[in-house]
Amino acid sequence: MLIILLLFASLRTLQGSSISSPLPNGLPFSTLDFRDTQLEHLGQRSVNDIVISCFATIFACTWSAIHPNIPAPTDCWWTRFKRQVTTMVCALLAPEVVTAWALRQRLAAKEIMEEYNETVLKDSIDIANIKGRPPGSHLNTLLGLFKDAPLLPSSQQGPRWTLAHGFFIQMGGFMLSEGGRPIHTLNWKWKAGKDVQLLHNIQNEIIDPPRLTEEDIQDRSKGDAIAKTFILLQTTWFIVQCIARWLQHLPVTELEVVTLGFALLNGITYALWWHKPQNVGRPVFLELKTQKSPLTIAESDPIPTEIHPSKGSWLRQRMRRALDEQPLWALPIMIPFTSLVALLRPLFKLIEIADIPNVDSSHLRVPMFYTACESELEDTSQWAMMVIGVLFGSVHLIPSWFLDFSSPLEMWLWRSAAIDITAGPLLVVVGLLAHATICIKEWHRIIAISLAAPILICIVLYPLSRIILLFLSLISLRSLPAEALQTVEWTTFIPHL
Fold this sequence. Notes:
Blueprint: H1 2-14, E1 17-18, H2 34-39, E2 43-44, H3 47-64, H4 77-93, H5 95-119, H6 138-144, H7 163-170, E3 174-178, E4 181-186, H8 198-203, H9 214-220, H10 225-247, H11 254-272, E5 284-287, H12 314-325, H13 331-343, H14 345-350, H15 375-397, H16 408-437, H17 445-475
Parallel strand pairs: 3-5
Antiparallel strand pairs: 1-2, 3-4
Helix pairs in contact: 1-3, 1-10, 3-4, 3-10, 3-11, 4-5, 5-7, 5-11, 5-15, 10-11, 11-15, 11-17, 12-13, 15-16, 16-17
Keywords: Membrane, Signal, Transmembrane, Transmembrane helix
Signal peptide: 1-16
Transmembrane segments: 328-348, 383-402, 414-434, 446-475
């Protein structure tokens, strides 16, 4: 359905009708404005064409481009759908943070792949890669298109891991089981207890190394390379159109500027998640060895279903804490503030402001925005998130001096919101790094609070700024200038006689 929608949007963008306006009587051709004369040879588009093209691109960047983690085997359809909608809203309000999430998973996947091959397969010989080419190299990927896969993995300990394996385990792709009944999800080794570490269980011969190949993982994915390539072509085509309009001095609408930011980050996100399987519905069960089983689960034991011990919703816990700890006069302030923080909690999880629960023996899935990054990699991802955030904000800020706003109020609202989303990531990352380097002493707490205050204000105002930009981009369609409905004359870019 998405491919049909994108194809329809592309065709609607390409089609147009010529504008024919007769010359005024008695007016010589030389007195006409050259730009008006040039517009007569250009096609015309409608507001519907702009809306369909932009909405199709935004939908592709916020729904189809997301690669969620694997749900628990006990999750119902509504629970899975609710998480995907939550992720889409986060991608709509803070797409650069989703790109940073993809970067953290990509960095961790590379570390997991290398450590598994060096630790678990250190004594094995992989015949498929005996010539020294790394298993995840682009050359091997290209050669694999023209070579049949072996019937069995070449190593007795299972196949060499690739980036797909590194992504798969971070998604909660491996589940420890006994007699076909799930016990808990398995992680690599970071942010996890020893009993849920895949490496620990393999080294202690509690389970066998997984025999899952990269082809098996990609077979579980709901998104293939053709669908990803088509979406990338659609977003790339949209970017090319915007650049071509600027080169021909044709105005770009505010909605197209907003969509341009999504399209730019979508390319980066897809590149980072290219090897990550998409929309996998079930994990792979790894059975405990009977003779090495450290525990026995009775038939009457209930299967855990929660990501963490059930103590009520996160909002309910914060409300109870506010009622217990705060004086009565502070409740009119604390209750609305706590509700606002609860609404923004998914964004807090993405930037790791909130405490993301680690994977332990009660988990049947990993957290929604989970990554297995080490602390060194998290520092790198924070700097990368700052760069990505500034880049995304600049896409909205720089064109604001070339947009045709309907009123000065809309212009200043747009620029203020664009400045906030541009400077916000810079302020948050610098504040977090500065706060981490401060020794927590009595007199340093004042500095810590002074750093935390602008960070919190920035986080609270950030979604508001994003909503303002989206709202202004939609209401700007009510009064577009005539030139905004002109299409690009592509023949000016093609050499011809």
